[in-house]
């Protein structure tokens, strides 16, 4: 996974997120949430199996809250 192109994409998103005004434009809010959830998902693969499994269990709840907040 260290050589995955995903890391380059996530690094680009971090650069974009750091340069966004606060609050970010509406059209980037959902993309920002996707980038954050993708990063969390990728990092769960690097955790212990138990910690990764626990985190993956709550990701759908986090995603649902993000969608509800955006609506």
Could you tell me the radius of gyration in angstroms? Answer: 13 Å
Question: Taking all residues together, what is the mean pLDDT?
Answer: 75
Structural class: mainly alpha
Oligomer: single chain
The percent of residues in helical segments reads over 70%
Encode the helix/strand succession as letters.
Answer: HHH
Terminal Cα separation, in Å?
34 Å
The count of β-strands is 0
Beta-strand residue percentage: under 5%
The largest sheet is: none
Global geometry: flat
Flag low-confidence runs.
Answer: none
Q: Helical region count?
A: 3
Using brief descriptors, characterize the structure shown:
mainly alpha; 71 residues; 79% helix; flat
Descriptive overview:
This protein has helices spanning 5-19, 26-44, 49-70. The model has no long low-confidence stretch (mean pLDDT 75). α1 (5-19) crosses α2 (26-44) and α2 packs antiparallel against α3 (49-70). It is mostly helical and 71 residues long.
Quick structural gist:
The protein contains three helices and no strands. With 71 residues, the chain is mostly helical.
Topology, element by element:
Elements: H1 5-19, H2 26-44, H3 49-70
